[in-house]
């Protein structure tokens, strides 16, 4: 049977200051979608609230708008999917083999405390499925607890967008929290590449995380390998 993957995207359209737009970092979705599609996996877009998932404007500009993202923008059917995502609360975890959290700064606001996303991650993980994230997507793992009360990320090797990368990107002052620090405080064994903005993927059993947009394809390929093992 084909593997089934929940692709999680954000509903948030701006930073705390409404004059600063944000949203889904498009290539972090499209690279994963391409990898999973080529593997014959079935994919479902889901968000905390359902409905539209806004796009991060910076992800639509050179050099971030790569060939994969351009193909998505040119595909009316796929663009329509981003306007009508499923609502996390209405999803049955038993229907899926993996959950994959995409990024963009938007997710820092709506991923961490969403109980439906936590339920889906816990149930999929405890059934032997894969939990994956790329870049800021790891914010969706911050508060997830397993059935025994232990945090999903406790004592697990993970990565995600680093605080140094926030500083170098010029947005650290707009962040609601330091995600790297929050991960460490929850007992995660956070790892990052020696250099910022280079591909870095960490696989710890069923948990697969990628550091930044440059890691998008490699992270998805790591998820594919774990699912196919």
UniProtKB/TrEMBL annotation:
It comes from the Bacteria. This is Dimethyl sulfoxide reductase. Residues 27-221 form the DJ-1/PfpI domain. Keywords: Lyase, Stress response. CDD domains: GATase1_Hsp31_like (cd03141). GO terms for cellular component: cytoplasm. PANTHER family: GLUTATHIONE-INDEPENDENT GLYOXALASE HSP31-RELATED, PROTEIN/NUCLEIC ACID DEGLYCASE DJ-1-RELATED. GO terms for biological process: methylglyoxal catabolic process to D-lactate via S-lactoyl-glutathione. InterPro entries: Class_I_gatase-like, DJ-1/PfpI, Prot/Nucl_acid_deglycase. One of its GO terms (molecular function) is glyoxalase III activity. Belongs to the peptidase C56 family. HSP31-like subfamily. Pfam families: DJ-1_PfpI.
